[in-house]
């Protein structure tokens, strides 16, 4: 009997030890979190960050503060997050301009995306549109391609900024349709739309959150969108592939953690954010804010960013575009 009791006691101790060992390896609760947005309040990135942060707060019970740190196209915010101490929980909601384009076009930036950051979760994506004035005689991509080949010197494409994703997407489009367009960089989307409506620009490329309302208001005509399927808000507009142009591309917003954040916490946050962004109610909120929801964990996010880099980096490098600081 004594031996049985001793054996039971030892077994109980061993099981308890295994239980506590398992608990010690479980991810620790996240007591607080700061989300840094590299752009001004009210923009697409800011709206995405606040909507997802609210959902994450409700899921984890974690106090979350959203901070806007603007300047230098997001590079100031990236440098700030990169330098965060290991005991601080900080994420940045970044886009390709910060994590893919900047290292290719700037000679010297204060961070290295691959070594200074860890991908956590992709939360939204956005497409591009190819547009003409509503008064234009061009009504389809086929007609635009024919016109561009017949008027090579007049095929000017307006984009909201030199070195922006619409700029490089314009280069992709020109290459794909076999007609070199002249990319005209503006200072923002508003003057692009003004010149497009006024007939000064024959063609414009911008993100769909900019173009959609203008198309719906019948001031411009979106000929095609860049995604894999038609946009819910633009059921009358075909994709480029549906228009016989073999080109598909999109931008994204994703959360990144500094390299100092422990890997288990990155995984924990990635899975939590993926669960939050998979919620139909939150997805509906994003869609109402002209944001296309995406749900990925850390591993899936890394794969999608690498796929994006492989598609865009050759175009950016071949353009020879550089910014001197």
Number of domains: 2
Q: What's the SSE pattern?
A: HEHEHEHHEEHEHEHEHEEHHEH
Q: What is the CATH topology classification name of the largest domain?
A: D-Maltodextrin-Binding Protein, domain 2
The beta-strand count equals 11
> How would you state the average pLDDT, rounded?
91
Gross geometry: globular
Radius of gyration: 24 Å
The CATH superfamily label of the largest domain reads Bordetella uptake gene, domain 1
- Architecture of the largest domain, according to CATH? 3-Layer(aba) Sandwich
Task: Describe what you observe in this structure.
- The chain starts with a helix and ends in a 6-residue tail after the last helix.
- It contains twelve helices and eleven strands.
- Helix content is 46%, strand content 18%.
- Strands 2-1-3-10-4-11 form a six-stranded mixed β-sheet, with helices on both faces. A five-stranded mixed β-sheet has the order 7-6-8-5-9, sandwiched between helices.
- The longest helix is centred in the first third of the chain and has 24 residues, at 2-25.
- The radius of gyration is 24 Å and the shape is globular.
- Helix 2 (44-60) packs across helix 10 (263-277), helix 4 runs parallel beside helix 12 and helix 7 (165-177) packs across helix 12.
- By secondary structure, it is α/β, with parallel strands linked by helices.
- The chain has two domains: 33-126 and 251-319, D-Maltodextrin-Binding Protein, domain 2 (3-Layer(aba) Sandwich); 128-243, Periplasmic binding protein-like II (D-Maltodextrin-Binding Protein, domain 2, 3-Layer(aba) Sandwich), CATH 3.40.190.10.
- Residues 1-26 form the signal peptide.
- Belongs to the UPF0065 (bug) family.
- Keywords: Signal.
- This is Tripartite tricarboxylate transporter substrate-binding protein.
- InterPro entries: BUG, Bug_dom1.
